[in-house]
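Here is an idea for our session: we take a single protein and study its fold together. Start from the sequence, derive the backbone structure tokens from it, and show both lines together. Once you have written the record down, we can walk along the chain together:
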Amino acid sequence: MGAEWESRRQVMSNHEQSPLPSAGAMSGLFTIRSYLLLMIAAILVPMMALVAILAWDYGAAGRRTIEAQRLDAANNLLHLMDREILATAGFLDGVATTVARDPGNPRLADDVVTAAKANGFVALVIHDRSGRRVFSAPAAAELGFATASALRIDEVTTGHRPVASDFLSGGEAFKPGLFFVSVPVMVGGEAAFVLSGGLAPQRLQPFLAEAGLQEGWLAGVVDRQGVMLARRVRPELYVGTLAQKPMVEVARGSRIEGLFDVVSRDGVDVKNSFRRSAISGWTAAVAVPASVVNAPLYRTAVFMAAIGVALTLVSLVLGSMVAFRISRAVQQLGVASAAFASGHAVPLPTSMLTELQDVATAMHVAADRAKRREARTREAQAREALGKP
């Protein structure tokens, strides 16, 4: 092999001394390796673009799933709240029926208050149609905040249906405050009185654990003014206070359901979903950290990017190896062709590529024909020198 390559180098040296076109005329813009790498890029780029689109769609589908789950959680929470309001109204309807049968019975008030306390009621108030208070337990002085307008007595007498009040601050006697459910007391087919039962907001807290909330999710219930009635995290600090401005605007607005983004009181970027109750008028909201909502998209993007980078590197390595073998075989053919042009015999390289094998075979045939022509020329010159015809 050493002698062979020495012969090839000698041939190339002789070939370089022969007149050739200038280097600028011989040089091309691309090499075989660059062409192969461009071909790989032409194949990979559309494939990676398609993978990116599919990954984005997959991640977006995961994000939409979480959004649907938080809407379902808000709907579950609202359903639990409505069920509680209707159950409370049902108990009060029974009490109202008893009161309507014998409104003048002095023992009736004691029995009603005892039954109400046993069912978790903190206060009872009865107003007549004009809004004048006719009964209260505890004493009227302690329930001065439970006015007819605050309890929405007009809505009860007009609609003949249960009505839930907003959060009412009860001062020192009823910390942090109460909400009331009011029902009509029907006498002679008319709403002669309105019975209102006051409950502590703590009564709503257990429902937050039953709404199907996942770990790290936040949830709360606000009244028509945006005051917190229940909150999953630290309710002792926030119940009875105004919610954040976007939630207050939702509570006071006309939308029944929807989504909005906000930064929580803890400084976490969250995505909220809300549903408004047609029964109580309250709004239930579920907040999911933005990192949780976007996690499927980010995970998919990182995973597909890692796969894409790995496949690209493998393709580039394999393409470089193939290009190196092709370039080497072509260079060897160039050396052999230069030797052939100079009249030197240099063994042609072998290659696994059919096209290069065809070129080598053609050069073999051309070399054999050249040798035969040269032999005939020498023979004719020898005869001519000897004077033979």
Q: What stands out?
A: The longest strand covers residues 174-187. Residues 1-5, 11-27 have pLDDT under 50 and may be disordered.
